[in-house]
Structure formats: C-alpha cells, structure tokens
Sequence to fold (91 residues):
Amino acid sequence: MCRTPSPEVRLTRLVHLIFGLHQIATGREMSHEDAHRYFSDPRALAETLRTSGALRDPEKSQQIEELLTRCRDESQHCAKRNQGEEPGDEF
Fold:
C-alpha cells in the first residue's frame, strides 16, 4: 500500500515542480535567489512564466503541460495505490 506522502515528500515534489517551471520559463537552473523569491512570494513564479512568454510559446507550453501531467499522474498513482486499486511496493 502506498502511504500518504510525508510533508517532506510533498515539499520535494513541489520544489521539483517549481524548479521545472522555472527552467522551462527561463532556460536556466533556479538560483538560491530565485528559490527564495518564489517561496517568499507565490506570485513571483507566475510573473516569471507570464513575462517569459512561455505560455504563448507552443513548445514551452507543451513542456509545461508534460511537467504538470507527470506531477498529476504521480499523485493519482499514489492515490490509487492507497485505495488498493493497484498492487505495488510502498513509496
């Protein structure tokens, strides 16, 4: 049975999502300053995405969609395992 993810696992998943969105929008890895800004002001990442034009760029939009799909699928996979619909090892 897949247990409910710990707060640490949830935070790690969130960081990976934010890191991925930042990298798609800017084409570079996230710095400590960027990370601090995003966690201090949740609107900062949205502003980075908006001003980068990533949402209007078909290729970057596709990359964002794929990233969000992977995150959603991982979450759904764990939820199904919690409900006993899918056998497997614990996360």
Observations:
- Residues 67 and 78 are 17 Å apart (CA to CA).
